[in-house]
Amino acid sequence: xxxxxxxxxxxxxxxxxxxxxxxxxxxxxxxxxxxxxxxxxxxxxxxxxxxxxxxxxxxxxxxxxxxxxxxxxxxxxxxxxx
Length: 82
What we know:
two-stranded antiparallel sheet; alpha+beta; 5 strands; globular; 3 helices; 43% helix
């Protein structure tokens, strides 16, 4: 994955989450929708999602403390379009 001119290495799980968010640009997704899309029917704890989203933000956001790409809207994830 590229961030500007920089190549960013993602784990398979991070890439899976990012792929789900990209496929659903400008859509609000629930935690369960993302978990199921990435881990399948028998997904585990939702805390795993928070951890991986944190990693994605640190790797992809200009400022991970003030994200502009991967957002939360009242308990659901929002992947804004351009």
